[in-house]
Write a structure and sequence with these properties.
- By secondary structure, the protein is an alpha+beta fold.
- The protein folds into two domains: 95 residues, Carboxypeptidase-like, regulatory domain (Immunoglobulin-like, Sandwich), CATH 2.60.40; 84 residues.
- Helix content is 21%, strand content 33%.
- The chain is built from four helices and 14 strands.
- The strands form four sheets. Strands 1, 2, 5 and 8 form a four-stranded mixed sheet that branches. It has a four-stranded antiparallel sheet with strand order 4-3-6-7, with no helix packed on it.
- Strand 1 and strand 2 form a beta hairpin.
- The radius of gyration is 23 Å and the shape is elongated.
- The N and C termini lie far apart (78 Å).
């Protein structure tokens, strides 16, 4: 009887130690938008521990989690991003995409989520609530007809303004809520378009 009790106590102690070890893992990370701009004040939630932390002025965060876990990055005006933390991962880089529409742009940019505001010098937005995209034969016609201050140069979309000699002047394109390159953009039939965001990145400033 004593030996059985001893075995049970030992197994219970090992189980506690294992669970403590599993949840004693620290993961650092960063939340960005447009691949490089840090997001301030984004919420990071851990599935196992229910822990929530807020990204700092550099978009950085630190969480405690299990050896294998899931986190969510949440910010108003952006699509929520889910990330799996496999064993061995010590750093998580999460990129959030702005939801289409002026209201979301206001939340995402106007309320300080983007720390380096100078890197977003221009943002042009259209949704199918404002215009019937299917009335245009091609995306080239749509750009010329609806986007003042935007031009197409050698197949690349550029927001007019001061140019940089050291960085790309090509605008970032968000089509139907997803970042795409110019080839995908121009190959898309206008009738399939729900929203377009054309952003002049800091490299074009």
């Amino acid at each position: 009887m004593v030996s059985i009790r001893f075995i049970l106590i030992t197994l219970f102690s090992i189980s506690i130690l294992f669970n403590t070890y599993a949840q004693n893992r620290v993961v650092n990370g960063i939340v960005t938008t447009f691949d490089s701009i840090p997001l301030v004040g984004a919420t990071i939630r851990v599935k196992s521990t229910k822990q929530s932390v807020i990204t700092d002025t550099l978009g950085s965060f630190t969480v405690t989690c299990n050896s294998k876990d899931i986190i969510w990055a949440i910010a108003r005006g952006y699509y929520t991003q889910r990330a799996k933390l496999e064993p061995g991962i010590k750093f998580a880089a999460i990129n959030l995409i702005i939801k289409p529409g002026e209201k979301h742009n206001q939340f995402a940019i106007g309320y300080g989520k983007v720390s380096d505001r100078d890197r977003l010098n221009a943002l042009v937005n259209l949704t199918n609530d404002k215009v019937d995209f299917s009335s245009y034969a091609t995306m080239y016609d749509l750009i010329r007809g609806r986007f003042a201050g935007v031009q197409v140069d050698n197949g690349e979309i550029i927001v007019r303004g001061k140019r940089s000699l050291n960085a790309s002047n090509t605008a970032l394109i968000i089509l139907n809520g997803m970042e795409v390159d110019s080839d995908v953009f121009f190959d898309t039939p206008p009738g399939q378009v729900k929203s377009i965001d054309i952003i002049k990145d800091g490299g074009a400033a």
